[in-house]
Amino acid sequence: MIRPRAVARGARFVEAFAARTPTLPPATHTNSYALGGREVLLVEPATPYEDERRAWLAWARGLASQGRTVVAIALTHHHPDHVGGARFFAAELGVPVWAHAEAAPRLSDVPIARRLADGDVVRLGGPEPMEVRVLHTPGHAPDHLCFFDEAGGTLIAGDMVAGVGTILIDPREGDMAVYLAQLERLAALGARVALPAHGEPIDAPEALFRRYIAHRLGRERQVLAALGAAAGAAGSAGEAGAAGATLEELLPVAYADTPRLLWPLARLSLEAHLLKLAREGRAARHEDRWRRTAEGRA
To answer: Shortest CA distance to 268 belongs to which of 179, 175, 182?
Structure first.
């Protein structure tokens, strides 16, 4: 692994540093990014590990030898593999931390100096000034932000997509419908390259966003089919088909193509899909059992 490294594929004034973090497999590292030709915004103060922190700090401090000055550290969202070094790096570098307002109550030990909102523009001075537009993109997390250099066509995508693995929508704080809507929004940006928190740069971001959407909608159809199969099985056994099925009963059917090792994570995604279907009137829950409604059969 080469680090730090310039981000190719046309991304201007962007440098990447991949640090080992306690993230979900198959990912092992989280990418941090330095944006700006003279004034620099550092995104993703990720690592909690001492050896990686030393390397990360050496990278950040080394920007000065290029005539670049760090002005702030920005968070894409509050998950531990993205903020493990936030307080430490801010103190060591003497710079503020910026994040969405929803991050503040989730990170009580990290002082948030500026609360970024959708549509804000971060202006970074330099020989070629950079204007970075802030995009609030909830769905994976309520405080999730992306950062878009419109002139360069470069999108810092955080955990909206990944260059390795996939994105978990945890129903305890995520929302599948909102996530899909935000993917549609990102697909319409016209970005030339997307830089994810995990994995390599994405050269055709619009195509990837649309593949993510298609995959989730395909899984949704499998979830509906699993609800239908559960109702059919109940009916053939002489039981009331409306009784529905539990998550544990639906999981092996809706995620039959997923290794059992990943079923604990798949169970969370299954629930996120079911909650979306319930809000749309296509599924219903009674206590711990789910069933498909008439609208879900249409």
So the answer is: 175
Give CA 156 to chain center in angstroms.
Answer: 11
Distance CA 98, CA 103 (A): 10
Q: How many helices (H) and strands (E) does the chain have?
A: 8, 14
* Res 237: pLDDT: 44
Task: Please give the pLDDT value at position 174.
Answer: 97
DSSP 3-state assignment of 87?
A: helix
Question: What is the pLDDT, as a whole number, of residue 61?
Answer: 97
* 101-121 residue pLDDT tens: 999 999 999 999 999 999 999
How deeply is 254 buried, as exposed, middle or buried, from its count of CB atoms within 10 A (0-12, 13-18, 19+)? buried
DSSP category for residue 199: S
pLDDT at residue number 196? 97
Q: Which residues of 56-77 are buried (b: 16+ CB within 10 A; e: fewer)?
A: beebbeebeeeebebbbbbbbb
0.85 cut: is pTM over it? yes
Residues in the chain: 298
Residue type, 90: A
Q: Which helix (H) or strand (E) holds 129?
A: none
Beta bridge partners of 33: 16, 43
Q: What would the 3-class secondary structure string for 225-286 be?
A: HHHHHHHHHHHHCCCCHHHCECHHHHHHHHCCCCCHHHHHHHHHHHHHHHHHHHHCCCEEEE
SS3 assignment, position 158: strand
Q: Helix, strand, or coil here: 212?
A: helix
The residue to which tokens 């390795």 are assigned? 164
Query: Interior CA angle at 90 toward 23 and 98, to 5°?
Result: 80
Residue numbers in the chain where pLDDT is lower than 70? 1-6, 8-11, 232-242, 298
